[in-house]
Design goal:
Blueprint: H1 5-11, H2 27-31, E1 43-46, E2 50-51, E3 64-67, E4 79-83, E5 89-93, E6 98-102, E7 116-127, E8 130-139, E9 144-150, E10 158-160, E11 172-175, E12 178-185, E13 194-202, E14 207-214, E15 219-227, E16 233-242, E17 246-247, E18 250-251, E19 268-274, E20 279-284, E21 288-293, E22 300-301, E23 307-308, E24 322-329, E25 335-341, E26 360-365, E27 372-378, E28 395-398, E29 409-414, E30 429-434, H3 435-440
């Protein structure tokens, strides 16, 4: 199986630590100047009010998605749907209580045969003669989408509606001899398979799409979700985009687990699609964030990322990996794009700390060319025994006010759950932070005004 850099760090618990002098100033290799010359971005501070149960082992929490209950009088019954990789899927309520556990299927030896990586929610999908809300996850082992009908009010709100005819998403991969235009068969071995995911509903055409990234490759693909006669959901291929494997002279296939400054990957994970603007934001983890224009059938990727990581831009506020992306919809087209600047300051050495960027969240405008506004961290809440967020993978945000969350909420994965209260952590979980904590703790403050309806974007 393909192993991410972060997972590899955790697997080396018994390895001899490799001392890499000067790793903290890795940008010297790419930018030609020392870290001290970089202007630190303004850093805000937010505090979570809720966390879910921490889990470990196969249950490695990764990506959340927020589902808003259709009845505003029952807004407290809104849910969080989340992936737990080989641990399956989880559903939580707004208090952090576990509502539903969907275990991954397993073979005769007990090994997981599913690995759910990313998830997103969409509203009003036409299936079986009615409109339903759906949650869709990428399954890295099966290389397929998994689809559930979200039924609020049930003890088990996720009902599987995946068609038996759901195709593989990446039966081919770029040919190493010509990655730009040629393809070769892709073995069904769970390696170069479905990874990041975001959903987009084209309201004018009444069509719903999944934008999916390919693990280990610089490929993003678009699939249309299709309702079958029996009410189940399948998908059909629309288009893919191929991005550079060499960026600014750096080979993105170069790997070196002893020196993180020389360890790269070409793949994407974080995907967030602006439901109003029709723009898919795609995070190429080591490089930066790209825009793909989907509205009105344009289906065009821009020719360069609009923001790079510090590896390629000495002024960038983002440490690689850039991870979870989420969109806060403000009033009348305003709002923010939020990106996890994960960094790699933790885990078994070698590590690559960038103190002003690690464990931060970058805030960019939705309009005005995605202008950078500043960054914030999510710190601990000792009164509720909630530690801060470190090495965040997936994230989601809503601007819909919910009980206990005026102005909405931000939910983030915490890669090291509980570690700030003593000892090491091998578990992960999710933290829920009120948007007003983010907004008021941000330098210059952020807006809390929104008239966005996720069912009628």
């Amino acid at each position: 199986m393909f192993v991410t850099k972060r997972e590899a760090m955790r697997m080396k618990e018994d390895a001899v630590a490799v001392h890499v002098a000067g790793v903290a100033v890795f940008a010297l290799a790419f930018a030609g100047m020392p870290m001290a010359a970089y202007a630190a971005p303004p850093i805000g501070h937010a505090v979570p009010s809720v966390q879910v149960a921490a889990e470990g082992g196969d249950a490695d929490m990764d990506d959340p998605a927020i589902w808003i209950h259709p009845d505003r009088r029952q807004a407290n019954k809104s849910l969080v749907v989340a992936t737990a990789k080989r641990g399956g899927m989880r559903v939580y309520d707004l208090t952090g209580r576990t509502v539903q556990v969907i275990d991954a299927t397993r073979d005769s030896k007990g090994k997981a045969t599913q690995r759910f990586n990313n998830v997103d929610v969409q509203y009003g999908f036409p299936a079986g003669g009615k409109r339903i809300d759906i949650a869709v996850a990428s399954d890295r082992i099966a290389d397929r989408l998994r689809v559930w009908h979200v039924v609020g009010g049930r003890k088990a709100p996720l009902v599987d509606v995946t068609s038996a005819e759901m195709p593989r998403l990446f039966p081919t991969r770029p040919d190493p001899a010509d990655r730009a235009t040629a393809s070769i068969p892709n073995p069904d071995d769970g390696k170069h398979t479905a990874y990041g995911l975001g959903l987009y509903r084209d309201r004018a055409a009444d069509r719903t799409y999944a934008v999916v990234t390919q693990n280990g490759e610089a490929v993003v693909a678009m699939w249309e979700l299709v309702a079958m006669p029996d009410g189940k959901v399948s998908a059909k291929f629309v288009k893919d985009w191929r991005f550079p494997y060499v960026y600014k002279g750096q080979d993105l296939l170069q790997q070196d687990q002893t020196d993180p400054a020389r360890d790269f990957s070409p793949h994407f994970e974080g995907i967030a699609v602006d439901q109003q603007g029709g723009i898919a934001y795609a995070g190429q983890e080591d490089v930066g964030i790209w825009r793909i224009h989907l509205k009105n059938g344009e289906l065009r990727a821009e020719d360069k990322p609009f923001i790079e990581t510090r590896a390629f831009d000495p002024k960038s506020p983002i440490a690689r990996d850039v991870e979870g992306l989420a969109i806060y919809y403000g009033r009348d087209g305003g709002g923010y794009l939020i990106a996890s600047s994960q960094g790699s300051a933790h885990g078994t050495p070698p590590v690559m700390p960038i103190p002003d960027l690690d464990d931060t969240f970058v805030v960019l405008t939705r309009d005005q060319g995605n202008r950078y506004l500043g960054s914030f961290r999510i710190g601990p809440n000792p009164k509720r025994n909630i530690d801060g967020v470190q090495e965040c993978d997936g994230a989601d945000v809503t601007s819909v006010s919910l009980p206990g969350f005026r102005g909405g909420l931000l939910i983030t994965q915490d890669g090291y759950a509980g570690d700030q209260f003593g000892g090491k952590s091998k578990s992960t979980n999710f933290k829920i932070t009120p948007w007003d904590s983010v907004a008021t703790g941000f330098p210059g403050k952020l807006s809390m005004q929104s008239n966005y309806d996720p069912r009628k974007p």
